[in-house]
């Protein structure tokens, strides 16, 4: 920014505001891009454990520079999930043994290297596939439980199981597309059901000749006397 090129204070201030506004927008775009890169982060089979770790560590550092807060659990989970398929058995076994919240990314990386060297092919062949499946299911349940607790802490909403409308949906914002009223889904709409029921129950209108009505009335009077 060249101050001498501006003739008065007004043009100088406009130039300064434009310059810093551009920097702010650029930082915002960079932050968004880094978040997307973290969300889509994955390793390839051609990469080693060291390379995947270094790439993720660099990305996390860049996010921290842009003041994007990430929990240690999220970072470690991202690392485990980004590993190629040949790591699946190792990560399944390791995840069941270790609390992810208590380890840094470097600690997790070193633990995986040590654990992999301890488990050779003969050890892996002795592990039953159903045991691995059970480990995986237990780990997923544990992760869902932690996510539910974190959701409750952040929003104050309790994930109850008392019906289809207790799963965090704000029913006051739900609009029925049949009657356009709020508070329920279309399948719960009574307007269409009531209209069908009324159409069925409503008696048919008949045109009766006046003579018939008069004669019937006279017969009724005679019977009553």
TrEMBL record:
Keywords: Metal-binding, Zinc, Zinc-finger
Top-rank taxon: Eukaryota
A Gene Ontology molecular function term of the record: zinc ion binding
Domain CCHC-type: start-end pairs: 176-191
One Pfam family here: Retrotran_gag_2
InterPro entries: Znf_CCHC (IPR001878), Znf_CCHC_sf (IPR036875)
Identification of the protein by name: CCHC-type domain-containing protein
Gene source species: Tanacetum cinerariifolium (Dalmatian daisy)
Organism placement in taxonomy: Eukaryota, Viridiplantae, Streptophyta, Embryophyta, Tracheophyta
């Amino acid at each position: 920014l060249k101050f001498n090129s501006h003739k008065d204070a007004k043009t100088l201030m406009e130039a300064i505001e434009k310059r810093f506004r551009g920097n702010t927008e650029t930082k915002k775009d960079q932050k968004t891009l880094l978040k997307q890169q973290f969300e889509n982060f994955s390793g390839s089979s051609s990469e080693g454990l060291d390379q995947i770790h270094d790439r993720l560590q660099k990305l996390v550092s860049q996010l921290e520079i842009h003041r994007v807060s990430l929990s240690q659990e999220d970072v470690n989970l991202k690392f485990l999930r980004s590993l190629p398929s040949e790591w699946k058995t190792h990560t399944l076994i390791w995840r069941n043994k270790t609390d992810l919240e208590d380890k840094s990314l470097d600690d997790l990386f070193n633990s995986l290297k040590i654990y992999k060297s301890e488990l050779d092919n003969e050890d892996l062949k002795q592990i039953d596939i159903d045991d691995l499946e059970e480990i995986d299911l237990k780990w997923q349940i544990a992760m869902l439980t932690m996510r539910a607790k974190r959701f409750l802490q952040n929003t104050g909403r309790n994930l109850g199981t008392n019906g289809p409308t207790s799963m965090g949906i704000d029913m006051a914002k739900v609009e029925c597309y049949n009657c356009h009223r709020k508070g329920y889904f279309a399948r719960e709409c009574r307007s269409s059901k009531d209209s069908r029921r009324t159409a069925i129950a409503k008696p048919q209108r008949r045109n009766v000749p006046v003579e018939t009505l008069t004669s019937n009335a006279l017969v009724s009077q005679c019977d009553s006397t």
